[in-house]
Please model this.
Amino acid sequence: MLSNFFTFEVLMVIGILAVLTACPTYFIYILARTKPSAHPVPYFPHGVHGWLLVFVATVVLSILLTAIDAINSVNLMSQAGTINWAVISPSIVIISLYLYCLWIIARKREAWVVKQTIVILWVVGPISLLLLGVIFDASIANDAVIRSCLYAALWTLYFLFSKRVGCTYGTKAVDTYVKLAIEMAEAQKAQKAREEKEARTKKNK
Model:
């Protein structure tokens, strides 16, 4: 079963998608490094790294897959002799929103970035599927709806509670992280003082 799935053609497609995803993701990573974080806190991660960079990669991959799907639709309509731009317009909107999302993640360092990113996640995901079904009478598979909701929900939780996101874009959660950082610094200072005191005691003996 697995041997039928991992054919040379499938592996080739996966490899090409991996390269096409990795290159823009790395470009965004380099671009984001030129902008300092809004509120870096000692002992806490910040900047477009870690899981935030993974999110960027998933957005890049979504753009690629949406573009490929749109191109295939255009080719099929061209063969039929007419192009219905109403069919292509949802893909154009989704790609535009995702590109805007990548731009603000890389170049902006304000708290509203998190809010707008969460809105975009739900608009291009569950909401877009709902609109496709209602307005264009498209047949949407249940598993596609479930995957879209899970993707939006998981990344929403990440953006709301991530220390990296909070420190990078200066959300209100940073206040909590500052208190934690101060407590960690005081604990480390106290531990160091105890170790120095024990060292002096041993030396005196």
